[in-house]
Amino acid sequence: MDGTIYDDCTTPLFAFDGVGGPARSEQAEPSRRGSSAREGSRVAVISNPRSYRNKRRPLTVPSGVLVESPRTRHELRRTLASFKHDGIELVIVAGGDGTVRDVLTCGTDVWGDSPPVIGVLPCGKTNALAIDLGVPDDWDISQMVAAWKARSFVERPPIEIERVNEGRPVLGYLFGAGVFVDATDLAQTTHRFGAVNNLAVALSIFGAVASTIMGGNNSAWRQGKAMAIRYGEDAQLSDGTAANSEGQRFIVLASTMERLPLGLKIFGERRPGMKTLVVDAPPRRFMRVFTRVLRGMTWKTMADEGVHRVDTGEMRIDLEGGFILDGERFPAGDYLLRKGAPVTFVTS
Question: Which residues are in the DAGKc domain (predicted)?
Answer without folding.
Answer: 83-167
